[in-house]
């Protein structure tokens, strides 16, 4: 079975309408949450959520969605950056008259880790902090100990219970979002911890190793570094393929202008123009930056660039 796995759309209708067209090419589609927040297109995203949720069963919400639907406490909301919270309050206000529709679609259970069968699971952030409102972000350049403690070890425990295994590490895959950065991690009894970031090549199928595997497909709507990305999963062949695309300059400019018109902060606007973590990662984690740059250059001009034609609003605001 072919599955498209994606997350962190962040109210970017240009990227989301491209995604909506891609869904038709796959037998299933798993979303890792954060439909809302940061971007200007709240109504478009609600239409997408409504249509998507009627067709597919394996999906979760993220911390931004939980804020809008009041599924987290006021104390947890207070931890959000002011500029991010401003966009969420706008989304909440603009969708206020859709409360009945939202309540039917969203529930606190959608914030929990979800299984599809006994081998594959999805969650927005981590097994111990599913929505990502308490624990730090986990990036692929973090130490093995941090990734093990926050992702691999807790998911191993969950997977062993799911598969009723006591000693041998099960074969299980967890797809996570939240960080907006592609990641490919594996731990097995034979080989221990492996960060497989250097093996990621856009458009090339990668075998899923035995053991516990953690995969982040990156972000559809708001990448922190590099291209917009999603993952293709072939369940029969047990392979994943990272696929990139980019927004045209015209699309980015339209996003910027719409965000500015809504009073969104300069920092939020910039994050949709140029991936915001690029300079920081180049300076602090040069090996990771080198790998990512090589990946982008290898695919080069063949990366699909999408334009504003992917966000044409109809009279009834449907997709």
Explain what this protein looks like in three dimensions.
- The chain is an alpha/beta fold and 319 residues long.
- The protein has one domain: Purple Acid Phosphatase, chain A, domain 2 (4-Layer Sandwich).
- 36% of the residues lie in helices and 18% in strands.
- The strands form two sheets. Strands 1, 2, 8, 10, 11 and 12 form a six-stranded mixed sheet that branches.
- Strand 10 (228-234) and strand 11 (239-247) form a beta hairpin.
- Helix 10 crosses helix 11 (286-299).
- The two termini are 25 Å apart.
- Residues 312-319 have low confidence and may be disordered.
Based on CA inertia axes, which overall geometry fits?
globular
Low-confidence segments: 312-319
The secondary-structure element order is EHEHHHHHEEHEEEEEEEHHHHE
Helix content: 25-40%
The total count of strands amounts to: 12
Oligomer: single chain
* Overall domain count: 1
CATH architecture: 4-Layer Sandwich
Report the C-alpha radius of gyration, rounded.
19 Å
N-end to C-end Cα span? 25 Å
Backbone structural class: alpha/beta
């Amino acid at each position: 079975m072919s599955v498209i796995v994606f997350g962190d759309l962040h109210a970017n209708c240009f990227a989301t309408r491209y995604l909506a067209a891609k869904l038709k090419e796959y037998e299933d589609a798993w979303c890792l949450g954060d439909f809302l927040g940061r971007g200007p297109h709240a109504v478009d995203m609600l239409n997408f959520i409504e249509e998507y949720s009627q067709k597919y069963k394996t999906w979760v919400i993220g911390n931004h969605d939980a804020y809008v639907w009041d599924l987290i406490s006021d104390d947890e909301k207070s931890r959000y950056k002011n500029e991010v919270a401003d966009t969420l309050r706008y989304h909440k206000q603009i969708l206020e008259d859709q409360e009945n529709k939202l309540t039917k679609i969203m529930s606190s259970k959608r914030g929990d880790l979800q299984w599809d069968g006994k081998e594959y699971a999805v969650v927005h952030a981590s097994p111990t902090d599913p929505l990502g409102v308490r624990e730090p972000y986990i990036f692929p350049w973090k130490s093995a100990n941090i990734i093990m403690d926050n992702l691999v070890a807790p998911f191993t425990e969950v997977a062993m219970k799911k598969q009723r295994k006591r000693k041998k590490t099960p074969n299980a895959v967890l797809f996570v979002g939240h960080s907006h950065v592609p990641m490919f991690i594996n731990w097995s009894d034979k080989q221990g911890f492996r960060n497989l970031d250097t093996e990621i090549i856009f458009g090339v199928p990668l075998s899923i190793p035995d053991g516990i595997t953690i995969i982040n497909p990156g972000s559809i709507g708001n990448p922190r570094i590099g291209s917009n990305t999603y993952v293709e999963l072939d369940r029969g062949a047990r392979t994943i393929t990272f696929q990139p695309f980019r927004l045209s300059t015209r699309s980015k400019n339209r996003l910027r202008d719409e965000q500015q018109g809504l009073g969104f902060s300069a920092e939020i606007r910039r994050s949709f123009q140029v991936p915001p973590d690029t300079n920081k990662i180049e300076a602090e984690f040069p090996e990771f930056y080198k790998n990512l740059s090589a990946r982008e250059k290898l695919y080069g001009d063949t990366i699909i660039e999408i334009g504003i034609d992917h966000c044409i609003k109809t009279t009834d605001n449907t997709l």
